[in-house]
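Human:
If only I could read backbone structure tokens as easily as an amino acid sequence. I am handing you a single protein, as its sequence and its fold in token form. I hope you can help me see how the letters and the tokens relate. Thank you; the sequence and its tokens follow:
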Amino acid sequence: MRDHILTTLPLTEAQRAQVIEDSLRGAPQAKRAWPMEIMLQDIRSEVSRITVPTLVLSGAHDQVDTTERLRQELMPYIAGAQLKVLPGVGHLSMLESPRAVAQAIEQFVRRL
């Protein structure tokens, strides 16, 4: 795992080890397919079938699924979805700022 690609804030050694372990545990076929096929798939028709209240969380510094990419390629296809940008974090926002993630989810659920 390269620092500052998946995260903006530093992870603890335990978190870093867990991310590496989880990444290595994946099937080789899945690891090859992710950048070459899965990230390139057009999911608009699938996500347009989502009919439940939906919160999309984006790390402001996410370099994998950027906020702009989510705004353009995901949000228009999920009716009524809400986008919440979490400041100061990257792709692994749940590890970088679990409190901000929990608060965003809690606020979303309260409004339902």
